Amino acid sequence: MKEKNKIELLISPSNLKEARALFSGGADIIDVKNPAEGSLGANFPWVIRDIIRANPRARFSVAIGDIFYKPGSFSLAAYAAASLGADYVKAGFFGFSDKKLAGETARRLRKAVKMVRKKTSFVLAGYADWKRFGGLPWRDILHAASFAGADVVMLDTYVKDGKSLFDAMPLSEIRAFLQKAGGLGLKTALAGSLRPAHMPAIKSLSPDIIGIRGGVCRGFDRNQPISAGMVKKFKRELNGDLSWEFPGNRSDFPDP
User: Fold this and answer.
1) CA–CA distance from 105 to each of 76, 93, 101, 194, 228 (Å)?
2) Which pLDDT score, from 0 to 100, does residue 34 have?
């Protein structure tokens, strides 16, 4: 159970080698995905299986993709992810412009997940940069998550061009998202090109979970390998044990 004011760190490896770098510590949740296939790109079943088998005591999240209105296809994907042993099954609601269809799809995905194991959490992810591709605004994402009975609602970014969550949405709106989600009984997660420089804002917002990949990859490039050293530094910064020195200007990022 999450300690009071403790933000859990979700880190997204794309293969077993990267996952092993997380087993020694740093990640509270290991989130298996495939960055080559999008923001929440799905990985191959054999990759997911091998990572979970390598450390069955760890907590795992499995992404099933940036999804659209194919409820049968993605319900089957959600069922498969849960069957592989995921503790969290995460879907990015990319291809929706109708909150009713999003809610109906989310409800079916949740049902598929709970068929396998009741305690597996269904995570519905929306995108802070929804205006860039005509997606659902965050209020509609919350509606869909609440309607479906999701366990966790996440706010991420879809376009991975270096712009962060804080570039995509004002701090006040992110805070409103978290407050309204909490009022609906949903756990909350934030992601989207988060960097050490964002830590003051992250801590002030205090979501339940933050998700990162690029922030702990070489050169802050999500397509490069995860660095175990950067993972440890990020975790220490999150815990308040380190002031991370990084290339760049902290004034470029929002104050809490």
Assistant:
1) 12, 9, 6, 28, 37
2) 95
Residue ranges of domains in the chain: 8-252
* SS3 label, residue 195: coil
22-39 pLDDT, tens digit per residue, is: 987 779 999 999 999 999
Taking the C-alpha atoms of residue 169 and residue 167, their distance in angstroms, rounded to an integer, is 6
CB 28, CB 10: distance < 8 Å: yes
- The partner residues of 32 in beta bridges, in order of sequence, read 62
pLDDT tens string 113-127: 999 999 999 999 999
Residues acting as catalytic residues: 33, 90
Six token digits for residue 110: 């949740």
CA distance 4 to 126: 25
For residue 244, is pLDDT > 90? no
H helix count then E strand count, the chain: 9, 8
Q: Read off the pLDDT band of 243 (50, 70, 90).
A: very low
List Cα–Cα distances, 222 to 28, 110, 205, in angstroms. Answer: 19, 29, 24
Full-prediction pTM beyond 0.85?
A: yes
Structure tokens belonging to residue 92: 């990015």
| Apex 82 CA angle, 78 and 85, nearest 5 | 150
Residue 174 identity:
I
Residue 210 has pLDDT above 70, yes or no: yes
Q: Which class would CATH give 8-252?
A: alpha beta
Token pair for 136? 């659902």
CA atoms within 13 A on the CB side of 7: 26
